[in-house]
Amino acid sequence: MTSTTEHANATLLRSLLEAFATGDERAFADDIIWHAPGTNRFSGRFEGRTAVMGRLDAMQEAGIVSRYDVHDVVANDEHAIALVHQHLEVPDGRRYDQQQVMVAHVRDARVAELWTMNQDQAVVDLLIG
Q1: Which of 1, 70, 103, 104 has the largest count of CB atoms under 10 Å?
Q2: Would you give the distance in Å from CA 103 to the centre of its chain?
Q3: pTM to 2 decimals?
Q4: Is 13:72 a contact under the CB 8 Å cutoff?
Q5: What is the rounded CA–CA span in Å between residue 96 and residue 94?
Q6: Where are the domains of the chain?
Q7: Sheet strands (E) in the chain
Q8: d(Cα 69, Cα 115) in Å, to the nearest integer?
Q9: What letter does residue 4 receive in the DSSP assignment?
Q10: Could you tell me how many helices (H) and strands (E) the chain has, helices first?
Q11: Is-contact 81 74, C-beta < 8 A?
Q12: Predicted pLDDT of residue 63
């Protein structure tokens, strides 16, 4: 028998994806670490809620729009994994749609560490510089 109830950490990661659009930071632990892949100006290891929000704010100020269509989210008591389709657009109208995987380590009902993996990181690096 399959349960239809979603794990709380799956719901948390879904809410994080929704929060990207609104700037809501409640899903992040104060000491979150976000591993953003690539060689672009927004890549790196961002430690703490202030640094993570600074990265997201800088992307928004640069006119980078990122939307997510969630394919699936799976979770257990410590982790949540989201399979998403990302729509990325820059101010000059160039776009890239890709598959992305997000892996979250969850602690005390907050995302404590996050890794994102892109289908083609080289294209993302070229697009957002």
Answers
A1: 104
A2: 9
A3: 0.86
A4: no
A5: 7
A6: 8-128
A7: 28-36, 44-47, 65-75, 79-89, 95-107, 110-118
A8: 18
A9: -
A10: 3, 6
A11: yes
A12: 96
Q: Which of 74, 101, 77, 91 is nearest to 127 (CA)?
A: 91
Give residues with Cβ within 8 angstroms of 24, minimum separation 6.
Answer: 18
Nearest to 75 by CA among 40, 48, 54, 102: 102
Mean pLDDT by 10 residues, the chain (129 residues): 75 78 79 97 96 93 93 92 94 96 92 95 95
Q: Cα 126 vs. chain centroid, distance in angstroms?
A: 19
Distances (CA, A) of 93 to 96, 98, 100, 113: 10, 16, 21, 32
Tell me which residue of 93, 91, 89, 92 sits closest to 124, measured CA to CA. 89
Residues shown for the chain? 129
Query: Could you name the CATH architecture of 8-128?
Result: Roll (3.10)
Q: Which of 102, 98, 91, 104 is nearest to 124 (CA)?
A: 98
DSSP code of 59? H
Three-class secondary structure of residue 41 per DSSP: coil
